Predict the structure.
Amino acid sequence: MQISPRKKRIMTEISQLLVPLYGRDNLKWDPEEKCEWIMFERFRLPPGWLNKRPDSPFYNTAYTPLLIEVPAGYPSVAPQNFYSEQQLQCGTDFINHYFDRPGTGTSANKYTSKGWAWLCIHVNAWDYKTNVAKGDNLLTVCRLIFDILSDKRNARRNFYS
């Protein structure tokens, strides 16, 4: 059976970019040909954020599971849907598009009932390259999520609205 160019690209990015930084045991992905998602079992949060979900193994720590949906048009289309565990808390509420409670932003969150909060991030600047390490990729997305949660002005100005 021949592997699709999209799946080959995603698997290359996982093995070459994500595994060295996050560890193989920390990553799971959709095993089907579609490769629709990647999950980090333990994603480090920026300073100030704590996981306040009492039933989480990460309760009172700066970690959360993170789910990234990979769109069908990837890599030419940037991922847009990101999910973390519900009940993350930051000392200062500086991100408006974190929806962790039913009834808030749930129209796009199909995982609310499974304990996931939606991080509403719109990637506006995306420049992928044939060489996975030279253009935007899944590692770029992870860094962007971290930067947005850190409220870095450069990320806010260039990548999302």
